[in-house]
Amino acid sequence: MGTIFLADTIYGKRPNTVHSEEMVRKIGIECLYYITHIDNVKSILHNGILSHSEISRSDLQPSVIYNQQVIDRRGSKTLPNGKRLWDYANLYFQPRNAMLYSLVCKYQNTGKDLVILSVKKTIIDSKHGVFITDGNAANHETEFYALGDLNESAKQDLFKRLRKQIDNDWWNREDGSKRKIMAECLIPKKVAPSYIQGVYVACDTIKQRVNDIINSSDTLTARKITVAIEPKMFFRPDSRSRIGKKISLVNGDLFFSRMQTLTISVNCVGVMGAGLASTAKYRFPDMYVKYQDLCKHKKLAYGSLYVYKRESSVFADLADEYVPLEDIESASQTWFLLFPTKEHWRNKSDIDGIERGLQWLVDNYKAQGIESLAIPALGCGKGGLTWDVVGPLMCKYLIQMDIDVAIYLPAEKNIPNSQTTPDFLLSAVDF
Fold first, then answer.
1. Average pLDDT over residues 171-200
2. Residue 72 Cα to chain centre, angstroms
3. Residue 235 vs residues 30, 308, 327, 349: alpha-carbon distances, Å
4. Is 74 part of the annotated catalytic residue set?
5. What is the pLDDT of residue 361?
6. pTM of the model
7. 120: phi then psi, degrees, rounded to nearest 5
């Protein structure tokens, strides 16, 4: 285990007194977070967020969301002071991390509803013995920082580094970002209820349940808590609507889709320099290498799409490495459909070429083994086409496919509600 203490011990000097929560605020960290099950909220409002050791000493029986492997791993981990992780309540600086992703995927269809508690940043300086980690505390590469032993300069450096680490919307194991985004604040024994200031939930139904719990509580803390709906925090789209039986319109990040096949609109010269393709290049370098090889050998053209049948899944890429994949539903392979919408990256997208590609998709999706599909609004980003033209054309073809299809609306454009209705989008369909 890597450990580090940055203390000013020259000539016996003690570290300067620093209000760490103010330092955290200045660099944009407004609060800390705790992931739990909704059934635990009532107890937490009365007893606080307890460490595993404190729970074991009590008669509480919380709803456990972590598997035994994760629990045991943390239980066997010791800090530089000889205590175990179990002796600390763990808070995240960034809740939208690999662990939450694993839990959301695991419990999406089981009725286990997750919530995220917002904890005041003042907790950092409220107790002696607080530790800050530069990543997942259970990982052997993670370093621990005893906050009370850091001088002002060391604290500033630490929190600035944490800000850079957690300000990500994607992560991977190779560059360490999966571990780093899970940086923790470890609080001895418990976080008192008075430090809880809010609850984040994924949808209105869960919000109502949390409000019912809060309203039934007789604590002063409960009356001050706000509840906010933040679907993106739980890797859900901002909105979703149904067009026909199999097609849905989605506002969100296509790369967090649960569909088997993700569509990338590309040119035919091997350049992924902007828009969705640029994001795909960064997040899936193996797909980019394959794409360049296809362009080099002239295997991509209008009406000639390519299905890159990747051996691994997005789930495996993003999930916490200590959560077994068998615990995550639909953790199968993630494929990529490379869909040419223009010849050269300098060109505008070609609507006729897109239609030829859609016809290829209808003719070949079964033979290719495509079981579900996420697809962007083809040509509507950097391609210069408009949704009022592209939307009905896509639906005309996609409705012919007997699989679930999610069309991701252009993120950079405000689409009128009148252009997202079934009547508008299915106007070209011959029923």
1. 94
2. 25
3. 21, 24, 18, 30
4. yes
5. 98
6. 0.88
7. -60, 140
| Confidence category of residue 329, pLDDT binned at 50, 70, 90 | low
Alpha carbon distance 153, 157 (integer Å): 6
Candidate list 21, 74, 179, 310, residue with the active-site label: 74
Find which of 108-112, 345-349, 401-405, 423-427 is predicted with most confidence, using mean pLDDT.
401-405
109 membership: H or E segment, kind and range: none
DSSP string computed for 126-174: TSTT-EEESS-TTSTT--EEEGGG--HHHHHHHHHHHHHHH--S---TT
Q: Tell which residue, 53, 408, 9, has the closest CA to residue 241.
A: 408
371 given a catalytic annotation = no
Return the SS3 of 51: coil
The single residue of 21, 54, 184, 355 carrying the catalytic annotation is 184
Q: Please name each of the domains of the chain with its CATH number.
A: 10-234 (no CATH), 239-425 (3.40.220.10)
Report the C-alpha gap between 378 and 175 in whole angstroms.
32
**Helices 351-368 and 387-398, axial angle in degrees (round to 10):** 30
CA distance 29 to 121: 8
Return d(Cα 96, Cα 154) in angstroms, integer: 26
pLDDT digits (tens, 9 = 90+) for 298-316: 999 999 999 999 888 888 8
Quote the pLDDT of residue 28: 66
d(CA 51, CA 80): 18
